[in-house]
Amino acid sequence: MDGGESFFQRHQRLAKQQSTGVDTYDVHVVGVTFEGRQQVVRSIQANDRLLLRRDPANRYDRNAIRVETLNGVQVGFLAKDLAAQLASRFDQLGAPVNAIVIAHLGGDNPDYSHGLKIRFQLPAQSNTAAKAMPNLEDEL
Fold it and tell me: Domain with 115 in it: what CATH number?
């Protein structure tokens, strides 16, 4: 299972999110091989915190959602199709969303590209006026 989560743990987490009105997303960060981002990605470890921030001025995608370190260094983006689905929800929140790294992909070989899989939460569709969960680790 992704991130070392067993089937039972995943079932419990999904049941809990249904009762708490929270949507949880486990996704790969895209664009990590551009603009020197590999150096940043290599320094990130599982359980590190990241921020997701809307980037409506992005010249390639008006729905873009950036993935950044807590210091504001860009790591990549959410996939374009997912960003298109979530952009309006991010806009309604009006604030960055916390994420946690659940897997660092790639090896110790500096010749290979490294990647990240992250988990983040948003208020459920019926609850979009609420704020994103500030204490993500409580839900993991």
Answer: 3.30.70.2330
Distance CA 101, CA 29 (A): 10
| pLDDT tens digits along 14-65 | 555 555 688 999 999 999 988 889 889 989 999 999 999 999 999 999 999 9
Domain of residue 99: give its range: 2-139
φ/ψ (deg, to 5) at 109: -75, 120
This prediction's pTM: 0.75
What is the total count of domains within the chain? Answer: 1
Residue by residue, DSSP assigns 65-129 as EEEEETTS-EEEE--HHHHHHHHHHHHHHTS-EEEEEEEEES-S-TTS--EEEEEEEEE-GGGTT
